[in-house]
Amino acid sequence: MKIEEKLYLVRYNTDHEVHLKIIDQKVCADCEDKPCTFMCPALVYRWSGDMITVSYEGCLECGTCRFCCPPENIEWRYPRGGYGVAYKYG
Q: Rounded to an integer, what is the distance from CA 58 to the centroid of its chain?
């Protein structure tokens, strides 16, 4: 089964309050490898033009981005209670 098929089984209760944030876009522009764009299993971070876009609605809440960002330029926290990822087993 492909990762896209597995991600299709995941459901989200999206909050209007963002739980992922880039602290400084200039730091991302200077980042040579941009590991967040390929380390995140849900592809939440994408390089678009001259900035990183964050699609927090699809976040799996795994925390990978917190550890793969060398300058620690991502503000990460869990969504508010009742919001976020809802895994469907089976």
A: 7
HEC string for 11-70? EEECCCCCCEEECCHHHHHHCCCCCHHHHCCCCCEEEECCEEEECHHHCCCCCHHHHHCC
Domains assigned to the chain? 3-79 (3.30.70.20)
Which residues face 46 on adjacent strands?
A: 53
Number of residues written out for the chain: 90
Residue in 82, 83, 39, 81 with CA at minimum distance from that of residue 62: 39
Query: Is the pLDDT at 9 greater than 90, yes or no?
Result: no
CA angle 19, 21, 26 (to 5 degrees): 180
**pLDDT for 72:** 92
